[in-house]
Amino acid sequence: MIGIIDYGMGNLHSVQKAFEEIGAAAEIVTDGSAVAQADKIVLPGVGAFRDAMDTLGEKGLIEPILQAIESGKWFLGICLGLQLLFDVSYEDGEYRGLGVIAGSVKRFDFSGRADKAQLKIPHIGWNSLKIHGDVPLYRGLEKDVYVYFVHSYYVAPTDRSVIATTTDHGGQFVSSIWRDNVFATQFHPEKSQRVGLAMLRNFAAI
């Protein structure tokens, strides 16, 4: 069973319905014991980094998430669920993350550029992925597939070997990562139609 973590900041039912559409068993989980019982974990999220970390702490979910990852369970972070994996975010201050992936979360900054008016923040809509290497989540996909984004912040990993895809928005930014049993995407697979469902199918099949 795939456990989709509910901490009050994600489009949980869209994610669950996407897994159901590909025939994968997925349930919304709300506490540490349910996280421990799940075979795979999905951490979605939309909203502010600080609020998300506070809520995960209040619900006692931080340690179960870290233990699940440490145990080798397959993990998928989506959007804010990607950013939370990092050491620190500079969203409206400086806040500590889960520390699973070394690096930081930064805001897009196009100030001083002649093309600033064309580079919208937040970055919303369809954009293409440049896939780096043989990433299990993207097997069977064509090159330069398009996926759906909604975000103002992006991740900057210290170790560039974790970069799974990059995307161009005023320059290349890291749009997903992969390390061992951990995948995480800045885009929304559940909103990315056929391509996104193929990714979720790959995750379910691992």
Description:
- The protein has six helices and 14 strands.
- The radius of gyration is 16 Å and the shape is globular.
- It starts with a strand and ends with a helix.
- The chain has 206 residues and is of the alpha/beta class.
- The mean pLDDT is 96.
- The strands form three sheets. An eight-stranded mixed beta sheet has the order 2-1-3-4-14-13-12-9, with helices on both faces.
- Helix content is 25%, strand content 33%.
- The protein has one domain: Class I glutamine amidotransferase (GATase) domain (Rossmann fold), CATH 3.40.50.
Q: Could you estimate the helical fraction of the residues in percent?
A: 25-40%
Tell me the total number of β-strands: 14
Strand order of the largest sheet: 2-1-3-4-14-13-12-9
* Protein structure class: alpha/beta
- Straight-line N-to-C gap: 12 Å
Going by CATH, the homologous superfamily would be Class I glutamine amidotransferase (GATase) domain
**Individual helix count:** 6
Number of domains: 1
Assign the CATH topology: Rossmann fold
Q: In CATH, what is the class?
A: Alpha Beta
Strand content: 25-35%
Rg estimate, integer Å: 16 Å
Silhouette: globular
Which architecture name does CATH use?
3-Layer(aba) Sandwich
Mean pLDDT over all positions: 96
Low-confidence stretches: none
| N-to-C order of helices and strands | EHEHEHHEHEEEEEEEEEEH
* Biggest sheet overview: 8 strands, mixed
